[in-house]
Write a structure and sequence with these properties.
The structure is a single chain. The chain is about 10% helix and about 70% strand. It is built from one helix and nine strands. The protein has one helix spanning about 20-30; strands at about 1-5, 10-15, 35-55, 60-65, 70-80, 85-95, 100-120, 125-130, 135-140.
Length: about 140
């Protein structure tokens, strides 16, 4: 992994076989970023899990084992206690140009992943909302 923060923008480059979520969290910790928005993420991943909300805190999920082109990767990140909660949506595409989208659950880098993450200085937190079962974002 390579990373550098300048003027509130964290630029991250991940390499083959790196875990996407754990590597992003490591870059955030090392850069001392608390809350952020993922502006852009492109590359090629494998073992990608996408989730689709089904209601009342429940998700359906599907894992794509093959190498998939990462077409879009955006969302927000909120520090909670000593960990980060990533709410990322992504679109991936296969070699036949079929695209699949949903909440990003996990994945490994197949070739590369290039990320631009903007630091947010607003105090934010997440809590479970009883009506939906979702962990909603709230302003402090």
């Amino acid at each position: 992994m390579q990373y550098k923060k300048s003027k509130g923008i964290l630029v991250v480059r991940l390499f083959k076989n790196e875990d996407v979520i754990e590597s992003i969290k490591a870059a955030l910790r090392l850069s001392r970023v608390e809350n952020a928005v993922v502006v852009s993420g492109i590359g090629m991943l494998r073992d990608v899990e996408l989730r689709v909300f089904k209601g009342k805190g429940k998700y359906a999920s599907k894992v794509f084992k093959d190498d998939m082109e990462l077409v879009s990767f955006s969302g927000n990140i909120i520090k909670s206690d000593n960990d980060y909660i990533l709410h990322i949506h992504s679109t991936i595409a296969d070699h036949k140009y079929y695209a699949y989208g949903g909440h990003f659950g996990r994945g490994k880098v197949a070739v590369t992943l290039e990320l631009f993450i903007m630091e947010v200085h607003q105090k934010l937190y997440r809590k479970v909302e009883p009506d939906t079962g979702l962990t909603g974002m709230f302003l402090k």
